[in-house]
Amino acid sequence: MGSGNVYVDGSDTETRTRSAVITARAAATFEPVGRSVAGARAFVRDTLQGWGYTDIIDDAVVLTSELVTNAVVHAGTKADVLCLRSEDAVRIEVADRYPEREIPLQQSLRTLGSPDREGGRGLQLCAALASRWGVEYTPTQKQVWFRLDLPERPVGARTAGPLLPVDLLPVADPRVHVAVVQIDRDGAITAWSDSAESLFGYESEKVLGRQLTDFAAWPHTPGTGTGIVEALQLSRWEGSYGIRGADGRVIPVYASHLRVRDPEGDPSTVCLLVRDTERAVLQSPHRGPAPDAATLPASGTSADPFETFIGSPAPDDLDGLLQRTVERARDMLDGDAAFLLLATDDETELEVRASTGLPSARQRFARVQVEAGTGRYGSARMPAVHEDLTVAPGAAPLLDGTGMRSVVTVPLKVEGRLTGSLGVAAEAPGRYSNEEALRLQFAADRIALNVESARLSELERLRRGSLSFLVEASDLLAGTLDRDQTLALMAQMTVPTLATWCAVYTIADQSSEPYLSYVLHEDEDRIDGLKALLQRIDPPDPVPTPGARVWNAPSEAAHRAALRTSMRSLGLGEPTRLAAGIGTTLATASAVGGETVVLPLVARNRVIGMLTLGKPSEEHFRQEILELAEDLSRRAALALDNARLYSERMAISQSLQRSLLPPGLPQIPGVEVEVIYRAAGEGNEVGGDFYDLFPIRDGAYGFAIGDVCGTGPEAAAVTGLARHALRLLAREGFGGPAVLERLNAAILDEGARSRFLTLLYGELWPQEDGSAVLKLVCAGHPLPLRLRQDGTVEPFAEPQPLLGVMEDLELYEQTMTLEPGDVLLCVTDGVTERREGTRMLGDDGLMDVLTTCTGLTAGAVASRVMRAVERFATDAPSDDMAILAMRVPEPHKD
Asked: Per the database entry, which stretches of residues form a coiled coil (predicted)?
């Protein structure tokens, strides 16, 4: 960009001997680097657009581009660009710091070189396009200047096309809505037209004053590097994004933004919004005075049609540039259709990027071979004229079935390299000859460099957008290890960003057939029909070859189903009961009627599935999109395989952990029992805390609650040992102390894997009078608490040594009685040691909670204690917790 001062002075006037009165000027200096050429073009374009001289912008930009290229590339010096405005013309001066490099003015312009040369074209263009031009030398610099006269035209005259018969005029679509939205400097909506209400479903009262970003789904396609906020700050902007309608669906739109000033002088932005398949463009208002029609000459010379080919859209607006090119090429040769194709990187295929007069939606991104056959006319690298396509079938595959009879095509080349192909076709035979081919070739030569520059800019934006897309996709895929969620993410990332619909097939093992695991369409109403169609056809073959391959089975099956349904509806087929109406079948056929590709999901040298992407009727994938999808499939395959491995290991772990928990709690006559268990750590169902309640013999029940040192699988192993040993020893008739002493020996026998264990073990006998007798042994465990009917709380046992530390233990049991209405609460230290900073719940806090539980059932007591523990601290618990509550209910009073 300009490195010096850029100034615009609209009030200063100066009379120069070589021009009329100067009413405004703008100047900039550009460094001798390649990007300065683009900066100079943008500077001249913005300057003339600001002056309201839109008619001469194209010529001024191309001349400035050539002259600045001579200065910064060939002369290798800084370039000074000066724009001077007068009442009837614009003068642009380009000076470099290399005065010794003379320009051969004495020679004929024809000897300066052909248009295919790297240099020497600037003066040729000046001679062809400028009203006047010249070269001036000073001791310090050389200056080339040119003058462009302003065209005289009546008010309202814009552009005109050829006169067409009535039957060839386009048919207007009554459903076309052009929404006009105005945005203030803060991004808030200040105007909302009736068409905006019809298109998006919002009434103006509900959107006025709200931010446009509240409704915009940005970006609509990968490669859009400009955000909505930045786009609203630009003087002009055109592009595609999505607006979320009142029904929640995203409506793709083509937007044209023009930044203006309102009557109060504040900046605002006018937005023209149409559906993405349509185009509507805002033109900058003409600021200069309109000429008087009476002063116009009676006749004038028509402008060279080639002059309109370069730079009409912004240089980086590739789609706009290509569409404008085909429309003007068609008008120039008075054709019925025109098309432009761009070459792939390896120059082996051409991809349709713009067309007019042809079913563009069907042809867009279709690919043809560069070398379609033998001979001169079989290669897109040479101009070709076909006077009658009916006698040369297959000569122009793009035109098959379109009714076109004659066609002329010419290559687009940059530095001898094929970059594309431009063609014009007509419905009548014999319309074109070598003369039209030469005219079209000259136009193609002029536009080729601009097209290639815009294509490279678009490619760079796509690559930046693709990189951002892949980074986001990797983050999302890495953020889950759930298989179903991974499948959903794979589909949601591709639809609608990369494809219209997506299907994911998975393969369990090498002997299994592919299974349709997930289907997604951008229109939710099409998902069921699409899924039913894919389930009726054989899945694609699991080929491990990388890259996308075309799969025709879905579109063929959909078309057959649509044909059968249509015939039955007309009474031409067998009278069978239709599973779906003709509307659903035809809609499904349209949804999958375009190109469908399959990408293998390969992880750890094994095909674990296929990612299938599809387009609607007759649409094709761009090569850049396929490359992006291939990168995504590699990342998705690894994420899916990781999710599979994690799910398998988690299932095994959870199965083993569930085997360590009691199968269920027995019903004890006359005693209410409730257990709450929480294992610390993600995915853990069992930790170091455990509980058990089991029948020992008739009328006697054993219960236990314990805490193994630590958490996780190692602690869970000791948990399993303790629980099973307790049941076995108790049912063998051992008393409480004997059971715990033998368990202590078993833990010590584990050697290095042993862990100490705190354990409360007891035996319970319900009595006929409604009470319950308990025998307890509390080996290093938090003491059980007894809640009486009067609200008093007291410990219900005495502490004894824990297990797994000493070999010789002398334990004893205590006999207690629970009266009707009493509650016995047993917990592990994960409850009492719940912390919030330096605070801890502790035994006193637990007793305070228990005093509020008078009259509650066992289940209510356990729930209230757990809520108190959870509310005591905001952090997630870091220790296992177990709560065992038993209550002897009071007898019912009649």
From this structure: none
